[in-house]
Amino acid sequence: MPSPPDPLSTTLAALSDPTRRAILARLATGQATVTELAAPFSMSMPAVSRHLKVLEHAGLITRGRAAQWRPCRITAAPLKDVADWVAHYRRFWTESFDRLDDYLREVQKKGKKHGHGKHHDK
Amino acid sequence: MPSPPDPLSTTLAALSDPTRRAILARLATGQATVTELAAPFSMSMPAVSRHLKVLEHAGLITRGRAAQWRPCRITAAPLKDVADWVAHYRRFWTESFDRLDDYLREVQKKGKKHGHGKHHDK
């Protein structure tokens, strides 16, 4: 049996849906009710409510307490966890460019020394 | 019927598993074969292969061509997409601290003016 997901896995799973990311993008502009959130998505209220439950479970939003008017607000902590996690891999995309740079410089240098297309190391 | 997931959703779903993130962390130290990747996880080879397929489908790893020795390598582009996406929300966690700062400064100021614990606005 799989163990219950860790918080980062829960966050990433919650974010792996374009509608939920669109809801977060809307909430980034300010708090909103379920009705307000449902409007731009041409989605039923229950469908939006299900998405909100997933976001709430992941701690990505919080909801007001009043029974009728329960505005949703974005909460940043899980997003920061994603940013912190992915930051460990930053060198891989900066290095790709560094390596391409090195490669292009090398190719250029060899081109000048030996003529074209001779000394490719793989 | 749901439409096929967009690339960012596919990436985030692939990352929403601790074993797959551990595999990426291992590959961040250098390329590895399936056997080498399976070793630390006390996992069957088919289970590891399934995880690798998910990572490969999301473009997070590439695999060598040789039939026997198919080393896996991390690929950075989808991770950069995650970093770029989450960066849009950076102000939410920096603002939280800014707001806390403002609040603490205000409380301190009011404490000095009026004595303690009187003028909380909410």
Overview of this structure, please?
Two copies of one chain form a homodimer. Chain A has 122 residues and is mostly helical. Chain A folds into two domains: 7-74, Arc Repressor Mutant, subunit A; 78-114. Chain A has six helices and two strands. Chain A has a two-stranded antiparallel ribbon. The radius of gyration of chain A is 23 Å and the shape is elongated. Chain A starts with 6 loop residues before the first helix and ends in an 8-residue tail after the last helix. Chains A and B meet through helix 1, helix 2, helix 5 and helix 6 of A and helix 1, helix 2, helix 5 and helix 6 of B.
Key descriptive features of the protein:
homodimer; disordered C terminus; mainly alpha; two-stranded antiparallel ribbon; 2 domains; 122 residues
Report the uncertain regions of chain A. 116-122
The two chains with the largest interface, and their residue counts, are: A-B, 34 and 34 residues
Distance between the termini of chain A: 45 Å
Average residue-wise pLDDT of chain A = 84
- In terms of quaternary structure, what is this? homodimer
CA radius of gyration of chain A is 23 Å
SS summary, helix count of chain A: 6
CATH class of the largest domain in chain A: Mainly Alpha
Q: Tell me, briefly, the overall form of chain A.
A: elongated
Biggest sheet of chain A, open or closed, and with what strands and sense?
Answer: 2 strands, antiparallel
Enumerate the strands of the largest sheet of chain A in spatial order, edge to edge or round the barrel. 1-2
- Beta-strand content of chain A: under 5%
Strand and helix order of chain A: HHHHEEHH
* Helix vs. strand class of chain A: mainly alpha
**Percentage of residues assigned to helices of chain A:** 55-70%
Question: How many structural domains can be distinguished in the coordinates of chain A?
Answer: 2
Number of strands of chain A: 2
Task: Based on the coordinates given, report the CATH architecture of the largest domain in chain A.
Answer: Orthogonal Bundle
CATH superfamily of the largest domain in chain A: Winged helix-like DNA-binding domain superfamily/Winged helix DNA-binding domain
Question: Within the CATH hierarchy, at the fold level, what is the topology of the largest domain in chain A?
Answer: Arc Repressor Mutant, subunit A
